[in-house]
Amino acid sequence: MSYYGQAHQMQPHQAGATYLPPILPAANSSDMKLRRELFVGNTPPGTSELLLLHFLSAAMRRVGLCQPHEAPINEARVNSKFAFIELATAELANKALQLNGIPFLGSYLKVSRPSKYSGPPDMPGLKSTWQELTGQEMPGVALDAEQEKLSRELFIGNTTPEMTEHMIKEFLGNAMLQVGLNEQPGNPIVTCRVSGKFAFVEVRTAHEAKNALNLNNIPFLGSVLRVGRPSKWNGPPDHQGNWEDILAKYMAGEIVVRPVGEAVIAPSRVVQILNMLSSQDLVNEEEFQDILEDTREECSQFGKLVSVIIPKAGEVGATKVFLEYETTDDAQRAIASLAGRTFDGRTVEATLFDETKFANKDYA
After folding, report:
1. d(Cα 244, Cα 9) in Å, to the nearest integer?
2. Does residue 15 sit in helix, strand or coil?
3. Is 302 left (phi over 0), alpha (psi -120 to 50) or beta?
4. Considering Cα of 337, then 339, then 343, then 349, what sign does the dihedral take?
């Protein structure tokens, strides 16, 4: 029996009275409509409602989010840079959330609940993005010049006044090189623009920019840098880690650095440190001994040190520092820990050094 029928029975007709049917809750129909509605962001200019409706419907059919001959989307309403779609059922709306990040006419659509949605939580087990659902990005999406540059740009937060553009560029680039986040030789950071408490860097390639997101939370000059996409980024969601994650993987041997175009050095117990000292640091004997002792104390934290060699002024290898560890694991741990460190404003570079050359005192 319907709600109306039940109400009618509970209010029997009285002689001389005019019967008014009960007022049903008005929220039911609007709430159900809201459960079937999704927000679609990053729609390219000129997107038609019919094109968007057909495109998303076809995508849902292709990956099995609805039946092969089903029309999952009832309506599309397009605005200047976003749209709303209404699905046939609330269940289909839940499934359509997995379209988030789908490539469309050179952009990546953001599919989510409308801001005013207050219905039940989404179904468990849903994929968060189109890429996660399909296992690969949809082919054939070409980026224009502006989008291509945006794919290589990153936001750097929590910078401090003493951090110059050159320092940030060298620090982040060196950190990427140390843990193998680069795909070509040389510094992957092309430019840096500092603005108050944040900065923007332009990375050499889109892939290296995505790799650089793993630098998030890297410590630098007493601050912890935030590394992320700029607010105007409209590409697919990223699933990167952070500096602690990438460092742990590197130290565990899960990441093997293979510099492109450079010879791969065999495992070694010797670490070479560049850009730590200047010629002036080697002039005064007392200062030289202080540096030697400080280096031994600091670098013994990474493993058991056998020796520390710092060639003096005028000798082959002057301004270099050599650390000889007991094991190759200790040497790798030292390199990972020294990545991005600064000394007197200079970003140091730590690499493996050939054991035979070291034994022969060939420090060139």
Report:
1. 68
2. coil
3. alpha
4. positive
Give 91's pLDDT tier (boundaries 50, 70, 90): very high
Residue 314 has pLDDT above 90, yes or no: no
- Least Cα distance to 234 among 107, 343, 79 occurs for 107
Are 225 and 211 contacting, i.e. CB atoms less than 8 angstroms apart?
no
Q: Is the pLDDT of residue 315 over 60?
A: yes
Residue 296's alpha-carbon distances to 22, 292, 332, in angstroms, are 86, 6, 17
Cβ within 8 Å of residue 60, ≥6 positions away: 66, 72, 73, 92, 95, 96, 99
On the question of pLDDT at 364 being above 60, the answer is yes
Residue with tokens 């980024």: 233
Residue 337 identity: S
Which residue(s) pair with 192 in the sheet?
Answer: 201
The tokens describing 25, both together, are 């809750």
Residue 45, burial from CB neighbour count under 10 angstroms (0-12, 13-18, 19+): exposed
pLDDT at 231 over 80: yes
String of b and e for 211-238 (b: at least 16 CB within 10 Å)?
bbbbbbebebeeeebbbebeeebbbbee
Give the number of other Cβ atoms within 10 Å of residue 320's Cβ.
Answer: 19
Of the candidate ranges 24-38, 51-65, 322-336, the one whose mean pLDDT is the lowest? 24-38
Find the length of the chain: 364
Instruction: Check residue 193 and give its pLDDT.
Output: 93
Q: Per DSSP, what are the bridge partners of residue 305? A: 325
Token pair for 294: 């400080």
d(CA 32, CA 36): 7
Q: What average pLDDT does range 269-273 have in this prediction?
A: 91
**Which pLDDT score, from 0 to 100, does residue 339 have?**
67
